[in-house]
UniProtKB/TrEMBL annotation:
Residue ranges, compositional bias (Basic and acidic residues): 41-73
Keywords carried by this UniProt record: Signal
Gly residues composition bias: residue spans: 30-40, 74-84
Segments of this protein annotated with the region Disordered: 30-86
Keyword presence, Nucleotide-binding: no
InterPro entries per the UniProt record, alphabetical: Autotransporter_pectin_lyase_C, Pectin_lyase_fold/virulence
Cleaved signal peptide residues: 1-27
Positions of transmembrane segments: none
Organism of provenance: Streptomyces cuspidosporus
Protein name: Uncharacterized protein
Length: 407
């Protein structure tokens, strides 16, 4: 049994209902976030690009998001229509790569992609790359990609992730699905199967699905001091070593609103989320995630603050402890959350608390199972767990071990 893991460093084409998002903030200034250490014995640190063409005064056309955020232009972009015309014709990967390069060189740029369209990447644009090959140019400026039912996917037997954001870079995605990325080359394994984020990454009405990383962050890796925001988006069906959906490294952050992290798989720990930074989830669903060999079917968290408001954690599983959540030292706060139908191979079907603090306020912990141990609802191996107005019932083989006030 392994209680604490070492430090290491979210479908088919689908869309969540569009939500209004403000004009993207300007690019974060020159952060130098170092990469995380390897998981399960991998000690390599991420190295990051710092190429940032700051000497250009020219700017690309800064279109209003209202003109093209969910543009309705045709896939091939016929004549007329002004703001409804895509900047990159459907399927024109060379033009997409060129447009991103131009935006990087200009310092910023907004690029409208064709609606209901697939852009199939047949080889890496960056190879071998400091952090492994990438299908698109590394984002060093403030770049926005907008579409509607628009997918960027790897269509090749060659392994490469889809996108990488360098320290100081910002990538905003609106109505975009990132799929089938593969960060699996190299003897020590790679991070971020879909997207490697070492800067600022924001997804609105977008999806990261069906990507694979041999090391950390099957869907998305958030490197040291980087930030990820999910708004009405999905991280689904990804696979990684730790953090099948998302891995957040030391100093990194995840903020998610109205989103889903589901059906992801970690061969190690944290089927949905593996966290070493700070996380805030509001109205988020974590369903059907798996940690095959270790802890935290939906979530494993190892430090920092982890706050959940009106979150549903349902039907997740772990090979070891914490079918829903495994806490190894975070300040965990759950308010109006539902923790149900999760299964642990060891202790703590719903919640396994090894260290740190866990406050449950107005929550429901029901119908969870510790298949190979005790504390079907909650198992406290260390740290402190407090219950306020929380229902813990119907868990197998028992509700709380040891007994807790209010349980």
């Amino acid at each position: 049994m392994r209680l604490v893991t070492t430090l290491r460093g979210l479908v088919p084409v689908m869309m969540v209902a569009a939500s209004v998002w403000g004009v993207p903030a300007s690019a974060a200034a020159g952060g130098h976030g170092g990469g995380g250490g390897g998981g399960h014995g991998h000690g390599d640190e991420l190295a990051h690009h710092h190429a940032h063409d700051g000497g250009h005064d020219r700017r690309q056309d800064d279109r209003r998001h209202g003109d093209h955020r969910h543009g309705e232009g045709g896939g091939e972009g016929g004549g007329g229509g002004g703001g409804n015309q895509p900047d990159v014709a459907c399927g024109d990967v060379a033009a997409l790569i060129s447009a991103i390069t131009d935006a990087n060189n200009a310092g910023s740029g907004s690029i409208t992609l064709a609606s209901n369209c697939v852009y199939s990447l047949t080889g890496p644009a960056v190879s071998p790359g400091t952090n492994g090959p990438d299908g698109l140019p590394v984002i060093t400026g403030n770049v926005t990609l907008s579409g509607s039912d628009t997918t960027i996917t790897r269509a090749s037997g060659t392994a490469f992730r889809i996108a990488e954001v360098a320290p100081g870079g910002t990538l905003d995605l609106y109505g975009i699905t990132i799929s089938n990325g593969s960060a699996t080359t190299g003897p020590a394994g790679l991070n971020g199967g879909g997207i490697l984020d070492a800067g600022t990454l924001r997804l609105t009405s977008s999806a990261v699905t069906g990507n694979t990383a041999s090391n950390l962050g099957g869907g998305i890796e958030v490197a040291n001091n980087a930030s990820l925001t999910l708004n009405s988006s999905q991280v689904k069906g990804n696979t990684g070593g730790d953090g099948g959906g998302v891995h957040i490294n030391t100093g990194g952050s995840l903020t998610a609103l109205g989103s889903q992290i589901s059906d992801n798989t970690a061969n190690g720990s944290g089927g949905g989320i593996s966290n070493f930074g700070n996380v805030t989830l509001t109205s988020v669903e974590l369903r059907g995630n798996r940690a095959i060999n270790f802890e935290g079917g939906a979530i494993t968290t190892n430090g920092g603050d982890f706050t959940m408001n009106s979150v549903i954690i349902d039907g997740n599983s772990s090979g070891s402890h914490g079918g829903g959540i495994a806490n190894f030292g975070s300040q965990l706060l759950m308010q109006s959350a539902v923790l149900t139908n999760n299964t642990a191979g060891g202790n703590g079907g719903g919640l396994y608390n090894a260290s740190g603090t866990a406050q449950l306020i107005g929550d429901q912990v029901t119908g969870n199972t510790a298949g190979g141990g005790q504390g079907g609802g909650i198992f406290v191996a260390g740290g402190t767990v407090t219950l306020t107005g929380t229902t813990v019932s119907g868990n197998i083989p028992n509700n709380c071990v040891p007994g807790l006030p209010g349980c």
